[in-house]
Amino acid sequence: MTSIVLLFVIGLMLGMAASPPLAAKNGFEPFHYVKKQAFFGGLAMVTMVVTSMMSPTLVRRLAVVGFGVSMVALALLPVFGTDFGKGATRWYSLGFASLQPSEFLKPGFVVVAAWLMAANEEINGPPGRRWSFLLMMTIVLMLAMQPDFGQACLILFGWSVMYFVSGAPMMLIGGIILSLIPVANFAYNNSEHFARRIDGFLDRSVDPTTQIGYATEAIREGGLFGVGVGEGQVKWSLPDAHTDFIIAVAAEEYGLILVFAILALYATIVLRSFFRLMRERDPFIRLAGTGLVAIFGVQALINMGVAVRLLPSKGMTLPFVSYGGSSLIAGGIAVGMILAFTRSRPQGEIGDILRGHGR
């Protein structure tokens, strides 16, 4: 939990540097977006703590309800949603804020899929793996239609990790990965949004007036120790400096030192969670926790990978650091679930089961 709080504090600190230009452009006082981030971040922290104190059974029940509501909200986006001029209908405009259903869908889906996969292993249990696969494909298609290929990839990745941990054969996992090649080809030929981002990523020359161009230059200028607090220029050029490209602001003003610190915090959260889950004997908890941690860690990697041009642009926030109410609160829910699943409980460890089978 300490690492999460530190990430949130770093996010507020970077928000103070990155958001004033946007606030001035939109006619707000300089720290308008910082105050909103602090408010939603406070809600996220409370949500995380409350969720962490729940039992795994209660977490599962609430996740099923939340997943159902999120699915309905996702399905109604084409009718009531808005794109805020970004070319993808992903949000509901609430006037004082916006709501992105896919952010809340992710933790709910992971828990539901883990429940189905765990039930598959029971005697006379349902074909849970097959049902979870059909559910995953439905969600991926719905997200691709927005289009939101970044969140679709996260859902697919989270499901694949859980499917692998549940005992799926490597040949099947390899077949699923290979099947993505024709899917990507179809998306490239039929989605201008997808094709534009892939072309921009593959182009060896970087237009300095694009978001990637500004971000790359900012990271280069920052060097090891940065240009100084408040001295960065990228925040005046990048429209998404406070969200998708917040790591560029960190690199320019504070240097690679802060970037390495942020990486260390994410690594600490992911590794400690995985080590704890490796000792878990309950298959549902092991699968759900693994899926949640995998999505959390990979989302952070994708965000930073885009900023340094290792990955195509995805439009994805950096968990607990980027500005965004939906991202913060959904992140609080997800991490609260991880804490609830990894909390010490009266039980034997998975090694006890293995030793028992050996007798």
What does this structure look like?
With 359 residues, this protein is mainly α. The chain has one domain. 69% of the residues lie in helices and 1% in strands. It has helices at residues 2-18, 20-25, 32-52, 56-75, 77-80, 101-120, 128-144, 149-165, 170-190, 192-202, 211-222, 246-254, 256-278, 283-307, 325-342, 350-357; strands spanning 92-93, 98-99. The chain has a two-stranded antiparallel ribbon with strand order 1-2. Strand 1 and strand 2 form a beta hairpin. The longest helix has 25 residues, at 283-307. 43% of the residues are buried.
Count of DSSP strands: 2
Query: Average pLDDT across residues?
Result: 86
Major β-sheet profile: 2 strands, antiparallel
Oligomerization status of the protein chains: single chain
Order of adjacent strands in the largest pleated sheet = 1-2
List keywords for this structure.
16 helices; mainly alpha; globular; two-stranded antiparallel ribbon; 69% helix; 359 residues; single chain
Describe what is shown at a glance.
By secondary structure, this protein is mainly alpha-helical. The chain has helices spanning 2-18, 20-25, 32-52, 56-75, 77-80, 101-120, 128-144, 149-165, 170-190, 192-202, 211-222, 246-254, 256-278, 283-307, 325-342, 350-357, and strands spanning 92-93, 98-99. Strand 1 and strand 2 form a beta hairpin.
Give the arrangement of secondary structure elements.
Layout: H1 2-18, H2 20-25, H3 32-52, H4 56-75, H5 77-80, E1 92-93, E2 98-99, H6 101-120, H7 128-144, H8 149-165, H9 170-190, H10 192-202, H11 211-222, H12 246-254, H13 256-278, H14 283-307, H15 325-342, H16 350-357
Antiparallel strand pairs: 1-2
Helix pairs in contact: 1-3, 1-13, 3-15, 4-6, 6-7, 6-8, 6-14, 6-15, 7-8, 8-14, 9-10, 11-12, 12-13, 13-14, 14-15
